[in-house]
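ok so dumb question maybe but i'm new to this and my supervisor (M.) told me to 'just get the structure for Luciferase family oxidoreductase, group 1' and walked off. so i did the thing. is this what she meant?? sequence i used:
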Amino acid sequence: MPLVPVTARRPSGHVVDTGGREGEPVPGALPQVMIEPAPLPLSVLELATVGSGQSTADALAATTRVAQAADRLGYTRIWVAEHHNMPAVASTNPPVLIAHLAAATARIRVGSGGVMLPNHAPLVVAEQFALLEALHPGRIDLGIGRAPGTDAHTAIALRRDPAALGAEDFPQHLLDLLGLLGDRRVEGGLAERFTATPAPTSSPAVVLLGSSGFSAQLAGALGLPFAFAHHFGGPNVQAAVELYRESFRPSPALERPYTVVTANVLAADTEEDARRLALPGQLMRLAIRTNRLRPVPSLEEARTDPERAAAEAMPSNTVVGDPGEVAAQLRELATATGADELMLSASTHGVAERVRSLELVAGAWGLVPEVTAA
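this is what came out, is it supposed to look like this??
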């Protein structure tokens, strides 16, 4: 289980060359501008959101475009979520989607944000991710969570046993998973009798996800990287990451604590445009909180939605604005949490706007785009 590669691609100040043949425009390219070095790595969290009037195939094609843009722009990794029975989310099976995105990209790490382990047998998850790692060595992350990623009825359908709705066995299942993926610290358990793959040469990087002290302490005790779900909107990020650091014990995977903090982020060329584009995402979050699930509304639908005022009044830690404003707020978040890496989730109706947001943030943050040879 290797350490998650986290080296930021940080120049000391440079001119961005967006590539392409001389005289030809590069679609979606950033202008050649002087930028400051990247303070720390940035990554992407994707839900494969389904918008009003869109199909599942549209949503997955959009996520592929986002992954390719993140790959080109210098983001460190892209993770896909696990959610079930939700009209606005097509990311129901992270391993399948990871296989597709890894094949459609060249450099970026691809992983789960995350696999909800109580929904799955540890051996099945280990086999899936050992296979992904063999196909794309050094590029696969296995983010693990303990929430169901859905409602109780769907969780029962997934687990096939109402008695299995709790997460009491999560620590043991996590240990079994680590053992199956080659963690020699794990004694006993499934790894004594089973192997995830016949002859591995590397292992996926395992990261524990959470939004509570329980996951923070467990990640620290096991010496794993910890990703805090700040994009959920909860107020506990500082307390959780501090508890993680206090609980941390060095491991073969990690010598020092490593914290990823997620955030809802949407940048546009102007603050006015950014706030307009953010409204569909606000309405989706309101729908989730009130259990009135629906696809992400279009911009026109959002503008006239009867729930607009309620969505805009809802407390939120979403980072929205022009590139300079967004970069400043992200620096504040990194400073407040001591994060080693920030992971951005952009929620709006159109994929072009999500890709543009990534481009603007990358330029303002100082990421180094990949330069494709002519």
